[in-house]
């Protein structure tokens, strides 16, 4: 099981002790670490954003329901994969959960092997998401170290302009364009033009507002 990685963790939130006890024993039998909580509030106070994993979440709970916790996680921009578990939820609950990004919605009693499979898939998804976010941050950090002029040149590279065309647009010499291109490749740690294009276009679709692939007039 992927969860055998020492850094992964399954969170379980359910107000029924018997459910927490049985699921904890089941999941621990695979070698996967698990922490269980009787309420959404206690979970929120103990969630570790640095550890990849997933959340098993009961729908109907006193004080804060599972669906309300899902909304709160979205509000806090916490994107841990959620597998809902419930003994008495209806179609509207499951539909709302899926619309908000739930990985699955299992009705009690559920097949243990199916649950363990869903947990493994959810953990893999969280690991992949974290790797993607980490890579994006690396690229964004490199972009942030480009000068204003280098960002302008990069914008034109992405749009397919030749060195001669870029020199005319920016009113600088071809040699200066070549120097900017070399600096951009070095700062972006790109081994090819194709890799540079991939970095720049990916960032333009996902980057914060402080970077824009638009040429300044």
Order of helices and strands: EHEHEHEHEHHHHH
Average pLDDT? 87
Low-confidence stretches: 205-217
Biggest sheet layout = 5 strands, parallel
- Reported by name, the CATH topology of the largest domain is Rossmann fold
Task: Based on the model shown, name its key terms.
217 residues; alpha/beta; Rossmann fold; Arc Repressor Mutant, subunit A; five-stranded parallel β-sheet; elongated
Outline the structure in words.
The chain is of the alpha/beta class. It folds into two domains: 2-132, Rossmann fold (3-Layer(aba) Sandwich); 145-206, Arc Repressor Mutant, subunit A. The chain has nine helices and five strands; from the N terminus they run βαβαβαβαβααααα. The chain has helices at 17-28, 40-46, 66-75, 91-99, 112-144, 148-158, 163-170, 174-188, 193-206, and strands spanning 9-13, 34-37, 53-58, 82-86, 104-107. It has a five-stranded parallel beta sheet, with helices on both faces. Helix 3 links the parallel strand 3 (53-58) and strand 4. Helix 6 (148-158) crosses helix 8 and helix 7 crosses helix 8. It is elongated and about 75 Å long. Residues 205-217 have low confidence and may be disordered.
What is the structure about, briefly put?
By secondary structure, the chain is α/β, with parallel strands linked by helices. The chain has helices at residues 17-28, 40-46, 66-75, 91-99, 112-144, 148-158, 163-170, 174-188, 193-206; strands spanning 9-13, 34-37, 53-58, 82-86, 104-107.
Write the layout of secondary structure elements.
Elements: E1 9-13, H1 17-28, E2 34-37, H2 40-46, E3 53-58, H3 66-75, E4 82-86, H4 91-99, E5 104-107, H5 112-144, H6 148-158, H7 163-170, H8 174-188, H9 193-206
Parallel strand pairs: 1-2, 1-3, 3-4, 4-5
Helix pairs in contact: 5-9, 6-8, 7-8
